[in-house]
Each structure stands twice: as C-alpha cells, then as structure tokens.
C-alpha cells in the first residue's frame, strides 16, 4: 500500500481529490488529507507518508517549506505540487526542492492518475537500482559477517561478557554500536523460500532483505546485523545526533525510535515482497534492552515467532507480545482434542477413505490455525503425531522407499524444516495423496491376484461340485464379499463363470472319440447322467448325445 497525503487550504480541492484518489482501486492507496501545512505535519507525525500532494501557496507555511518536514520524517517521500500559479519562479523553486512533478489546477483525472502511476513506478525503479548495487557488495558483507559471527553468538547466548569485553569486540570488528547504550532488537524470518533455492541464493536474498531494512531505518539508527540458521537479527541503537539544521527534527530517544520502526515495518514487508518476492515476518523487542538482557529477550522473541503459526506468513509482533500469548492461551487445543483428531485421521487413512481423510485433515489444520499463538510443545506434539502416523503406515506396507523416490521424507524427522504451518499442511496433503494413490494401485493388484487364483482353482476343480461356500472357505473371504469382488472384476457372477467353464469343458470332452456321456458326466462332477443331460440341454439347447452327433466328423 502507498500512503498519500493531500494538503491544500481550499476545502473543495482537498475533498475532490480525496474522493477521486479513494476511487482508484488499482493503485492500492491509503489517502490522508489536511487543510493546512501544520495540519499536514500532524498527520505525517503519526502516519507513514510515501507521496505528498500539496499546494504551493498556503497561509502560514508554503508547500515548499512543508517539503523539509516531510523529508525529515519520511525520507523516501515523493512530492507532487498542485497549484493555480504557473509562473516560472514557483516552478523552479519546486524542482530545486526535489519535487517529482508540478500540476496546474484544475488537474484532470487522467493527468492525476498518470502522475501517480509514474511516481509509484519511480519508487519501484529506485528500489531495483539499489538492490542491484547491493549485490555487488555481497562478498565484502559476507566477510564482515564471518568476523562478527562468534561475537554475536556469544552475545545472544548466555555467555557472560563484561562491558569492557563487549566494547573491545565492537571496536575490533568495527561494529557500529556502543557497549554503553541500550538497544532495540528485531528478528526477521523468511517464511517461504523460492522453490529450488540453494545456499548462495538464500545469502543473496538475505543480503537484499537487510539492505531494504537498513535503507528505511539507517537515517536515525545505528544498525548491526547477524544471521543464524532460522532468523536475521538486527541490533539497533540511536544514531549520534547530527549538527542542527533548519526544519530537521531528530529522533533523540529510544521510545520514539521504537514507534518509528513499528510504523515502518508494514512498508518494509511490502517492499521486500514486491522487489525480491519474499514473505518475511518480523518481531520487534521492547525499546530499552540492555546488553546483559539480550539472551533472555532473544529467547522470548524466538518463542513469539514460533508460536505465531496461526497467522501464517508475514507476521508483525511489536512489543507486549507476551500479553497476547496469555490472552490467546485459552483457545489452544487440548491434548485430548489432538488425539481425537489423530484417531479419526488414522482410521480414514487405514480404511482407504481418501475424501474423509483430506476433509478431516483440513478441518484439523483450520482448528489449529484458529489459535493465533500455539504453544511450541503442542506444535511439536502435533508434528510427531502426524509424522508417526505416516511413517507407521508406510513401514507396515513396505512402501517407504517407493514413496521417498517421489517426495522427500526427511521433512518428517525435522519440524524446523517447515517455514510455517501452511507449509507443513501442504506437505501432509501431498504425502497423503501419494499414499492413497499407492494404496489404490496395491488394492487393484491384490484383487486381480485373488480373482486369477479363484479362476485357476475352479478350472482345476471342475470334476467336483463347486459351491460359493467352498470357495469362500478356501480363500478365507466371506461368500458375499467374494461374490461381489468377482462380479466387480469380471463383470459376471461367480456361479455364471463356473457354469461357463463346465459347458466349455463338456463340449471338449463330448467330441473326444470313444468318450462316453457317462464319463463326461463323471469328469465334470455331476451326480448322475440325467442331471448332466438336463444341465447341458438347458444351457446349450441340445442334449449331449445330439451335440455329439451334430458335431462329429
């Protein structure tokens, strides 16, 4: 979102522009309005401003004077002047102040839309150019990170360091911080890496993320950055005040700096998403962390980040997150509820009910995501339940290796490999789909094998009176299931198949020279010749004797 501030002392102009800009949906604008420069300054002190559209001549303070205030507060803000005066002097003065454009009243809708599109594209281009130049400095930054790594590991861990030791390391490694001043900590997590990202790609992207963060913050901050396996960590202190300048308001205390960073985090997230296509979550500490308190603060922040899975990607937590944890704790799933869901999923998986399984899993994950902050131990319990269920199912069927050729199974052994809850859900869905496909193929093969064996047994046993009960006993299946299975696979009933085989065999035997009808009857397991004759005539249309006569040489 781009925040636009309108400043003009003519109410009709302000209201007209305000309504016009709010109707331009494709530009995704948040529009603020003010009827004087002083009112505009109050708006920009409490809200981020990306684009300022201001009149030149206003009572009390001109639009040109207003530029100094907005640039001091929001360094990257672009300015568009809107005025009824077309004289050369004002035009030159506006552009000397770095104005993006100068529009004459009354400006048409298309003119304003075109100007806004160009200014937003200009912001986009500036970020792209900065990211390209940032990559050229990557190797130098990586070397500096290696020198600082051991120091920051000790600071974040519980190794006790004296103020003198901290100051010595800061000086030796040229870290832009002071051992005598408190800090603000901020941690960031890439929620989802692009598919196929290698280590080098991730280092480049992390460096680009850090560049964007520093570009937004370094005007008022001294920043040192450190990256570990899961998170990027920023150590932030106030920058030493510069020499006083006209219209320049310095941030002189940590609470004010803390508020300023909190205001910018959404814009930082959006810039990272737009320019390097990464979803990134942030957690900001309290505003006055002392050096000895860094390890405990860092542990708390990591816990907040781990718990925030219900918010999916691009979480922002600023201070007082511990209060949120207790507020949402009452909504957490109980262990009994988790086990109930697991039992339902296991039943659906083992019974081969694909539809019920996926519906149940979706319902379960949605119920988990309703809990905005889920205790990390419960996260691990759910992960272990699901991993055990899938692995036990595959191992029992000896298909683990086969499934592993299609989907990487090492994720089932390490919860930390999933960036967020949504990624874990997607993985479980893919794995379940593979298992059901494999099970369906396996069942089809098993059914075909059973039916082939039934056919072979019937053919070998044509000299006996074969019944469905006898076959069900041989193959250890119920008569109903065996009959239904055979009909589903062959398209005819089992009794019809036995009859077909007996008729075909009797025709073969009747045409053998010297073979008597009595012998054929005995060979096919009939109790008497008369019963065989009735059976044959009913199904062939002639008696066995007539068949021999009609088909003999």
From TrEMBL:
Record domain Response regulatory: where: 3-120
Residue span, HTH araC/xylS-type domain: 452-550
InterPro entries, alphabetized: 2C-system_Tx_regulators (IPR051271), CheY-like_superfamily (IPR011006), Homeodomain-like_sf (IPR009057), HTH_AraC (IPR018060), HTH_AraC-typ_CS (IPR018062), Sig_transdc_resp-reg_receiver (IPR001789), Tscrpt_reg_AraC-type_HTH (IPR020449)
PROSITE patterns named among the record's database cross-references: HTH_ARAC_FAMILY_1, HTH_ARAC_FAMILY_2, RESPONSE_REGULATORY
Pfam families: HTH_18 (PF12833), Response_reg (PF00072)
Designated name of the protein: Two-component system response regulator YesN
UniProt keyword annotations, A-Z: DNA-binding, Phosphoprotein, Transcription, Transcription regulation
4-aspartylphosphate carried by residues: 55
